[in-house]
Amino acid sequence: MSSEPSRVDANTKYYKGATKETIGKAIGNEQMQAEGQALKLEGEGEYKAAQTKGQAEGYKDNVTGTVKENIGKAVGNQQMQAEGNITKNTGDAKKEAHQY
């Protein structure tokens, strides 16, 4: 797995842990149950890290786009203004996609 937090990897880890925990509970294996709980918690942490990373990228794009759009307006460069608007909108979409 990569070192970057991934919501898909986090969900996979969480559900593997939940399954292991349930099986451990069903067969009375406390070690398996504890390992499943630990895996679930690790998945939850990775999921939150991925959300935070996505939110940060969205804010960065939003600010960068706003600055570029405003500079484009100030100097009368419509292409720069449009590119800034696109970057700003991309940032908004990233923030929305990674909401808590």
Automatic annotation (TrEMBL):
Q: Where is the CsbD-like domain?
A: 7-57
Q: Region Disordered: list its residue ranges.
A: 74-100
Bias class Polar residues marks the residues at 76-90
Leader peptide range in chain numbering = none
Q: Where is the composition biased (Basic and acidic residues)?
A: 91-100
Spell out the family assignment given in the record's similarity comment. Belongs to the UPF0337 (CsbD) family.
Name by which UniProt lists this protein: CsbD family protein
Source organism of this protein record:
Rhizophagus clarus
